[in-house]
Design a protein that fits this description.
The protein contains four helices and three strands; from the N terminus they run H-E-H-H-H-E-E. By secondary structure, it is of the alpha+beta class.
Length: 113
């Protein structure tokens, strides 16, 4: 992914964190996190939803290679993908929530539209 933010983590930790956050977003519909993490999650989540729009075995396996829970991958292809079938991108929205109390990091809510 060109232009990926490092987020102060090693590449393995960053990839695992993104996989977990994307899985959680697809499972629950929204996440409250920092703004920079939300922007990275949006990029990957939109690619996963695009995969979910066409229900093929290759797309299912590609999504399953990234998503950590099998039931979330099934939900992606059964519910989320068909929901956005007539929409070309822009499946998520990021809302700024203001600074976090502890360290004043800019917080954001990312949710599926």
């Amino acid at each position: 992914m060109p232009g990926t933010r490092k987020l102060g983590r090693t590449s393995d930790h960053r990839k695992a964190m993104m996989r977990g956050m994307v899985t959680y977003l697809l499972e629950n519909g929204s996440i409250e996190t920092t703004l920079t993490r939300a922007k990275d999650v949006r990029c990957i989540a939109e690619k996963m939803i695009t995969l979910g729009k066409t229900n093929t075995l290759a797309n299912y396996r590609a999504a399953l290679a990234y998503i950590t829970k099998e039931d979330v991958a099934k939900k992606l292809f059964d519910e989320i993908g068909p929901k956005y079938a007539d929409r070309n991108g822009g499946y998520t929205a990021i809302y700024k929530l203001g600074p976090r109390r502890g360290d004043a990091a800019e917080m954001a809510l990312i949710k599926l539209i």
